Amino acid sequence: MFTLDQFKRLVADFRDVADFLVIYIAEAHSSDGWAFGNNYDINQHQSLEERLSAARILVQSDPLCPVVVDEMSNAAAIHYGSHPERLYVLQAGKVVYKGGIGPWGYSPQEVRSVLEKLQ
Fold first, then answer.
1. Which domains does the chain have, with CATH numbers?
2. Which strand (E) or helix (H) includes residue 71?
3. What is the pairing mode between strands 67-69 and 22-24?
4. pTM of the model
5. Virtual CA dihedral for 44, 48, 50, 54, nearest 10 degrees?
6. Given Cys at both, which of 11, 17, 28, 72 links 64, Cβ 3.0 to 4.6 Å?
7. Between β-strands 22-24 and 94-98, what pairing exists: parallel, antiparallel or unpaired?
8. Computed from CA positions of residues 25, 60, 103, 5, in that sequence, does the dihedral angle turn out positive or negative?
9. What is the pLDDT at residue 35?
10. Whole-number Å distance between alpha carbons of 2 and 89
11. How far apart (Å, rounded) are the C-alpha atoms in residues 27 and 54?
């Protein structure tokens, strides 16, 4: 959520170049786990309904693109190595950009550079 404004600028600036999608995965900083002091009060998801409920908080912040929810088996997070967060750019079914693992490797500016080249 901390970098959501940067992500929203990407979506707004490149919606004619790319389709954007957020996959909500397991909560990285749950209240009952490794939490930050200024974080949302979200416990680690024990059911799909809990994960959906947590994802609705993100949807209320209007990320400007669809939000889908990973399965409780964390299939998407495992496949894309995205816990706690990661940015990708795919073109024609192939990965053309794989960002570093967040939070330190999360770089909307790198995605911006990739998308500028695809324009």
1. 4-118 (3.40.30.10)
2. none
3. parallel
4. 0.81
5. 90
6. 11
7. unpaired
8. positive
9. 46
10. 21
11. 8
Q: How is residue 93 written in tokens?
A: 């079914």
Residues whose CB falls within 8 Å of the CB of residue 114, separated by 6 or more in sequence, listed in order: 89, 96, 97
Spatial separation of the C-alpha atoms in residues 86 and 83, rounded to whole Å: 7
- Name the one residue in this structure whose structure tokens are 């079914």: 93
Of the pLDDT bands very low, low, confident and very high (cuts 50, 70, 90), residue 91 is very high
CA distance 78 to 61: 26
Q: What is the largest CA-CA distance in the chain?
A: 43
Residue 87, by phi and psi: left (phi above 0), alpha (psi -120 to 50) or beta?
A: beta
Q: Which two tokens stand for residue 14?
A: 């490149």
Taken in order 117, 102, 48, 11, the sign of the CA dihedral is: negative
Type and span of the H or E element at 14: helix 4-14
Name the least confident of 13-17, 27-31, 32-36, 48-52: 32-36
